[in-house]
């Protein structure tokens, strides 16, 4: 054996002293539970027992008494391995692992260095990004080209980037190459499927835990401190250089100004977080021809049927249909060679069938491995119950209505997003207070009206004339805001004259939404007149005809609406007699259509399938029978009668036969105008509105017809003039439910003399 040199002898002695010091320092930091042999073992595992690392470890531990309990982010790499070895040996309570300065993870080891300290390999690679030679974005270089390195998005845009997938036959980016040379896309490539240790299903593994593999549905990320709200909750976005660890609730509230639409909305920074901020609507997405509608639009999802745009995706989810193979109502994503549509289970027969954990039926599963119907039942129970387990007896009819919907997907979306559902959940905390009076005390908006309609259609609240209730509540709110001297006049006028007359019309079933708006306008005209009198230092007793003429001239839109108030005031001697406003003479209609235009629009209503079904029905009724929109929206299923040969419509009392095409359109409208949830009370309208149990607003229907190039006023005038040469005015009045004087004025306009017909009746 060759003799050692003096330097080697000295180095060996120094190393032995360092090793003794390592054992002593480790036992001092960890405690007597760490035996000398175990201290040597962990140092050897950390590759810090010999060589230069031993001396580095001694210097680091000697200079910092808390080197293991509070290690520095700039510590040597051997210290990182030592901390991991001590944790694995069961001494994790005595030491603290060093986390990555960007993502906050302790595994893999943050062996790279950065300005903020230690970085893991993933974060260090993300920071080592370079500008793409084509798009110029600073990102990870995916492949090299003659002009330089390019990113993955630019590589995917190259003509040869996509190949035909052997599974779905789509041109997709190759994700896995098969032994025969064909490729599979990421969707069709076999997943790392194992038996989940929690649900027992063979699913794609999301994480390997101490109990075994866990699928994505059963896995929940470990909870730790959220850097935004300070709660100990699961983290969905790890910390980086711009934000701390963020939980799901805080992440959804992460809003910035979008670089495209310039609105403050939730979104993300594109290009790996380094590009400009885009909201979820404006984020860049690939544009393709939608396989369902044929329009070129941004792709929402790729199905076996092809790329699907966002609009068609939402429609397909909310309107499931019977699968051509299993005949179950499911979302149809695939199709056969003959064009028959298939559900997911039938499109991929080799994959395990997903079954509901509650009813055991194959279905498109939601959270909790439940089918849409079972998920809907659970969420409705959670919404309407106080303890999350049972619903109070008064609300049971509403539970039945919501859970028996034909399309549970729509109700699930309504429960998740609608503020109406949130209001209903708050009201369900006190079921005994659910009555019309309690709802009238709430702010009157769309949510309150929808809740009231839902409770009425479910049979929980008694039905009432909502148009009359709207007038009564509006008058009460309006009068309460007036000064005392005006309220003393407006309150009796509104309650004794306007509301009293409205109750009489409501008892006859003829108080419409348009009548409600007209009565509100009469009250507003009276208030405007009193305000003008105050500005002129006048009152009703000092009102003279010149004053009234001046007011009426300046306000021509309120001229006619103020007549009821003036007549009421004169009858009660609140103003001088003889002060009147003459009602303007009734003017004949002036908007008509040419004969060819009216005929072409009618043919378009009956034959153009591109128009919405409700638009075709309403426009056809206007052009064939001169029905006003206020009367059309009040039509219900009870107005339709059928026999073996004909379908009849009874607008007033006498039914008339509908043309076959229009009859089919009305049948289709009644079949497809299913409300969001079924009803147990109330009428089924031909044109249902957004509020359950209420018809569509005639003003909104008029705007919709106008947007589709089918205006209602000129078409109705033309249809009325065309009908008068064939039918007497009295017959028109009986069929359409209009006043006989109105029919006579139309007859005068049409230039027809029906005196012979009237004399024959006598």
3D structure, described in words:
Helix 1 packs across helix 2, helix 1 (6-30) packs across helix 3 (51-63) and helix 23 runs antiparallel to helix 25. Helices cover 43% and strands 13% of the residues. It is elongated, with a radius of gyration of 39 Å. Among the domains are: 6-97, no CATH class; 372-457; 466-571, no CATH class; 595-723, no CATH class. By secondary structure, it is an alpha+beta fold. The longest helix has 25 residues, at 6-30. The strands form twelve sheets. The chain has a three-stranded antiparallel beta sheet with strand order 11-12-13, with no helix packed on it. Strands 14-15-16 form a three-stranded antiparallel beta sheet. This is XRE family transcriptional regulator.
Topology:
Layout: H1 6-30, H2 36-45, H3 51-63, H4 77-91, E1 112-114, E2 117-119, H5 121-127, E3 130-131, E4 138-139, E5 143-145, E6 148-150, H6 152-156, E7 162-164, E8 171-173, E9 176-177, E10 183-184, E11 193-195, E12 202-209, E13 212-215, E14 223-225, E15 232-237, E16 246-247, H7 248-252, E17 255-257, E18 264-269, E19 277-279, E20 287-289, E21 296-303, E22 306-309, H8 310-318, E23 321-322, E24 329-330, E25 332-335, E26 341-343, H9 344-347, H10 372-384, H11 396-403, H12 408-417, H13 419-427, H14 436-440, H15 446-457, H16 466-480, H17 484-507, H18 513-535, H19 545-554, H20 556-559, H21 563-571, H22 595-607, H23 613-625, H24 629-632, E27 640-642, E28 647-649, E29 656-657, H25 660-672, H26 698-707, H27 713-723, H28 729-736, H29 740-750, H30 755-761
Antiparallel strand pairs: 1-2, 3-4, 5-6, 7-8, 9-10, 11-12, 12-13, 14-15, 15-16, 17-18, 18-19, 20-21, 21-22, 23-24, 25-26, 27-28, 28-29
Helix pairs in contact: 1-2, 1-3, 10-12, 12-13, 13-15, 16-17, 16-18, 17-18, 18-21, 22-23, 23-25, 23-27, 28-29
């Amino acid at each position: 054996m060759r003799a050692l040199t003096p330097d080697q002898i000295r180095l060996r002695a120094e190393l032995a002293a360092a090793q003794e010091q390592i054992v002593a320092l480790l036992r001092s930091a960890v405690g007597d539970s760490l035996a000398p042999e175990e201290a040597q073992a962990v140092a050897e595992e950390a590759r810090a027992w010999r060589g230069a690392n031993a001396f580095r470890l001694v210097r680091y531990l000697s200079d910092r008494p808390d080197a293991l309990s509070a290690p520095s982010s700039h510590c040597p790499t051997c210290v990182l391995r030592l901390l991991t070895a001590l944790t694995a040996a069961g001494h994790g309570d005595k030491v603290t692992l060093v986390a990555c300065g960007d993502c906050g993870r302790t595994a893999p080891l943050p062996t790279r260095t950065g300005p903020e300290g230690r970085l893991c390999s993933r974060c260090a690679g993300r920071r080592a990004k370079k500008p793409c030679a084509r798009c110029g974005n600073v990102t990870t270089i995916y492949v090299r080209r003659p002009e330089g390195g390019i990113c993955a998005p630019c590589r995917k845009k190259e003509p040869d980037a996509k190949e035909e997938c052997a599974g779905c036959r789509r041109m997709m980016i190759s994700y896995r190459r098969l032994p025969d040379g064909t490729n599979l896309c990421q969707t069709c490539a076999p997943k790392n499927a194992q038996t989940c240790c929690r649900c027992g299903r063979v699913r794609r593994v999301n994480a390997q835990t101490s109990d075994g593999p866990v699928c994505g549905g059963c896995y929940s990320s470990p909870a730790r401190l959220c850097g935004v709200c300070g709660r100990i909750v699961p983290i969905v976005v790890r910390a980086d250089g711009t934000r701390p660890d963020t939980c799901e609730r805080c992440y959804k509230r992460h809003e910035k100004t979008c670089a495209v639409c310039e609105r403050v909305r939730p979104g993300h920074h594109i290009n790996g977080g380094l590009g400009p901020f885009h909201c979820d609507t404006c984020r860049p997405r690939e544009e393709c021809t939608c396989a369902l509608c044929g329009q070129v639009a941004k792709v929402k999802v790729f199905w076996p049927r092809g790329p699907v745009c966002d609009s068609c995706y939402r429609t397909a989810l909310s309107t499931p249909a019977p699968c051509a193979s299993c005949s179950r109502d499911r979302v149809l994503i695939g199709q056969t060679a003959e064009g028959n549509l298939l559900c997911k289970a039938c499109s991929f027969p080799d994959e395990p069938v997903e079954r509901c954990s509650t009813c055991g039926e194959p279905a498109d599963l939601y959270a909790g491995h439940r089918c849409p119907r079972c998920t809907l039942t659970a969420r409705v129970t959670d919404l309407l119950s106080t303890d999350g387990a049972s619903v109070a007896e008064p609300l049971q009819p509403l539970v039945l209505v919501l859970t028996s919907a034909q399309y549970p997907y729509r109700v699930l979306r309504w429960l998740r997003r609608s503020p109406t559902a949130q209001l209903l959940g708050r009201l369900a905390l006190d079921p005994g207070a659910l009555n019309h009076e309690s709802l009238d005390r709430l702010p009157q908006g769309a949510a309150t009206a929808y809740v009231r309609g839902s409770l009425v259609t479910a049979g929980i609240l008694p039905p009432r004339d909502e148009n009359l209730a709207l007038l009564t509540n509006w008058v009460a709110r309006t009068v309460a805001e007036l000064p005392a001297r005006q309220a003393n006049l407006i309150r009796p006028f509104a309650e004794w004259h306007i509301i009293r007359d409205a109750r009489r019309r409501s008892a006859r079933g003829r108080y419409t939404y348009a009548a409600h708006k007209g009565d509100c306008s009469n009250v507003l005209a009276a208030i405007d007149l009193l305000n003008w009198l105050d500005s002129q230092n006048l009152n009703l007793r000092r009102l003279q005809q010149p004053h009234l003429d001046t007011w009426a001239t300046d306000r021509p839109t309120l001229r006619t609406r103020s007549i009821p108030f003036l007549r009421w005031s004169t009858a009660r001697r609140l103003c001088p007699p003889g002060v009147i406003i003459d009602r303007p003479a009734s003017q004949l209609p002036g908007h008509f259509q040419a004969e060819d235009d009216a005929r072409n629009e009618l043919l378009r209503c009956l034959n153009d399938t591109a128009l919405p079904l409700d638009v075709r029905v309403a426009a056809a009724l206007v052009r064939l029978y001169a029905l006003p929109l206020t009367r059309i929206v009040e039509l219900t299923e009870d107005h339709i009668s059928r026999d073996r040969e004909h379908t009849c419509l009874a607008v007033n009392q006498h039914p008339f036969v509908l043309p076959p095409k229009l009859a089919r359109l009305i049948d289709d409208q009644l079949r497809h105008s299913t409300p969001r949830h079924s009803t147990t009370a109330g009428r089924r309208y031909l044109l249902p509105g957004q509020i359950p149990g209420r018809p569509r607003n005639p003003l909104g229907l008029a705007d919709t017809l106008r947007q589709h190039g089918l205006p209602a006023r000129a078409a109705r005038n033309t249809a009325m003039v065309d009908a008068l040469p064939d039918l007497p005015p009295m017959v028109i009045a009986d069929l359409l439910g209009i006043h006989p004087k109105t029919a006579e004025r139309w007859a005068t306009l049409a230039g027809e003399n029906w005196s012979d017909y009237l004399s024959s009746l006598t």
